[in-house]
Every structure is written in structure tokens, then in C-alpha cells.
Amino acid sequence: MYRKDEKEECCYNYKKKQQQAAIASIFSYKHMKKVYPVGLYRSSSSSLSSLSSNSSSLSLTLSQNSNDESSLTDHSSSSSPFDHKVSLALRLIAPPRQRRREQNSPTVPRPVGVHDHDHDQDGDGDGEPRRCNWITKNSDKAYVAFHDECWGVPVYEDNQLFELLSLCGMLMDYNWTEILKRKELIRKAFGGFDPNVVAKMDENQIMEFISDKALSLVECRVRCIVDNAKCILKIVREFGSLSGYMWGYMNHKPTVNKFRQPRNVPLRSPKAEAMSKDLLKRGFRFVGPVIIYSFMQAAGLTIDHLVDCFRYKECVALAERPWRHM
């Protein structure tokens, strides 16, 4: 009888050692380094008990969006410690998508289009309306005002279209903030961007603008604006107005986009490429597809305010009433 009990105990110990060896092989240093090279093998190589004790710190390492550690530590009270350790280990080596689904509990719904960095719908909590994400608290006042008052508003007046086209051409040398701070000086220098006035500027006036430190314009930019004014006069003779030519590419109605993230906003579009190609054929300069798309955004030919920006609905309302602002 004693030998029989001893034999059964030996068989039990042998099976237990086989199970432990199998689990250890799963979490071997070499294997785990291939699955998750994030330091998981450091805690698992010693023992499964150390794996259980370090589970909370590992969960934060593998998923920074986790707000609840219970998704990795919850287990049935009826399960054995050994089953719990295996279940915990399998969760830690689960694919990233599966972990995200487990960690984003359905009991905490996330509204569509609302992200962790977003503010409330009406503002940012400081009494300011919600704007596109590229407008921050550090943005210059001129840049914020341009976003709130001009950017995305449909423009139908020739002089304003010429001005925006010229300002967008300067984006190759300056950013919007630098341009907008000098906008009034540039507008005054170029006669309100009247194509008839700019096209008649002589060499002395061009050199005067180039030497003006307040304008801070390079020679090629000044000459480009003058040459483009001459091209605009030709378009006016052919199409009746620059506005009619530009809006003809849009079928006289702005394109309304529904972008939720800045990364969704493109740098160019097929219509911008078509307009750029035709403008280049007509002798315009600095009118590549990226510059033209920036012009289309500023002039309201395309509405690219993010959908949660307070200006989105306002610009869309204007876009739905084409040609009423002339």
C-alpha cells in the first residue's frame, strides 16, 4: 500500500514538472524576445509568480491608453491559481488589437469623433470656442483672426482672390503668421491687389518694394505678383472675371469636406491639380497644386475646417448659398 501511494505521488510530481516545463518553454527568453521585445521576458523568466506581481506595470507599458488594470487581473473565483497564471500570461502576449478591445470596456462608451485630446463641443473650457486643432493657445492673434474670420469663407471678388492667391504663393518662403502680420502693408503696396494697377507697375516700383524692409519680399515674389496680374487681365477678357474662371472649376459651388483629424486634410486635390496645370499654361508663376489647394482653402472654394470647429457650420451655411456674396 505504501509503495502504491509512493508511485502515485511520483507520477503526480512528474506530470506537474512536465506542465511547469511546458509553461517555462512558452515564456523562454528567446521565444518572448521574438513575440514582445518590451521586457516581458525579464519578469517571466524567473517564475510565473513574478509575472503575476508585475502584471500591472506591464499593462501600462504595453498600452498607454489603459485606464483600468482590472482587465488584466480579473479572474473567476472558481479557477485555480495555475489556470489564472496561464490566462494572465496569454493576455499579456495577446495581439495589440485584442488588448485594446479588452481594455476599452463597453461600459464606458466613447462618442463618435471624440478623442482624448478633444475638448467639449462648445469650447475648450476657457470660454474660447473650439477651433481646428492647428489653432493652439500659442497661436498668434493674427493667425487666429484669419482662421475665425476669413479662412474657408467663399470669396467671389476678383481683388480678394488675387490677394489670397498672392499670399498663398508666399507660403514657399514664410508661414501664415509671418504673412498675415504684413498683410496690410503688402495690400497697400500693391494697390489693394487691383490687377489693373499691379499690371502697370514699372521697374522703379518693383525695386522700391524689394528694398522695403517692412515688406520683406524677395525679388522673385514681387515680379511674380506683377506678372500674375497681367495674366489675370487676360483671363478677365476671356471669362469676364477671375472669379468666374476660378469658380468654374468648382461648378460654382464650394466643396464641403468632413474631416475630423488634421491628418485627413490633404495637401492637394484633383481640382487643384487641374487648375494649377491650366494656370501654368496661361503664364502664371508659383501656382503649383499645393499652393493652389492652400488658396482654395483660404478662398472658400473648399471647406476644410474640421467638423468640430465652430466655423465649420458657419462656412458650410455660406457654401450652400453660392454667388450670394458678390
From TrEMBL:
<feature type="compositionally biased region" description="Basic and acidic residues">
    <location>
        <begin position="113"/>
        <end position="131"/>
    </location>
</feature>
<dbReference type="Pfam" id="PF03352">
    <property type="entry name" value="Adenine_glyco"/>
</dbReference>
<feature type="region of interest" description="Disordered">
    <location>
        <begin position="47"/>
        <end position="131"/>
    </location>
</feature>
<keyword id="KW-0479">Metal-binding</keyword>
<feature type="binding site">
    <location>
        <position position="147"/>
    </location>
    <ligand>
        <name>Zn(2+)</name>
    </ligand>
</feature>
<dbReference type="GO" id="GO:0046872">
    <property type="term" value="F:metal ion binding"/>
</dbReference>
<protein>
    <recommendedName>
        <fullName>DNA-3-methyladenine glycosylase I</fullName>
    </recommendedName>
</protein>
<feature type="compositionally biased region" description="Low complexity">
    <location>
        <begin position="47"/>
        <end position="81"/>
    </location>
</feature>
<dbReference type="InterPro" id="IPR005019">
    <property type="entry name" value="Adenine_glyco"/>
</dbReference>
<dbReference type="GO" id="GO:0006284">
    <property type="term" value="P:base-excision repair"/>
</dbReference>
<keyword id="KW-0862">Zinc</keyword>
<dbReference type="GO" id="GO:0008725">
    <property type="term" value="F:DNA-3-methyladenine glycosylase activity"/>
</dbReference>
<feature type="binding site">
    <location>
        <position position="309"/>
    </location>
    <ligand>
        <name>Zn(2+)</name>
    </ligand>
</feature>
<feature type="binding site">
    <location>
        <position position="305"/>
    </location>
    <ligand>
        <name>Zn(2+)</name>
    </ligand>
</feature>
<dbReference type="InterPro" id="IPR011257">
    <property type="entry name" value="DNA_glycosylase"/>
</dbReference>
<feature type="binding site">
    <location>
        <position position="132"/>
    </location>
    <ligand>
        <name>Zn(2+)</name>
    </ligand>
</feature>
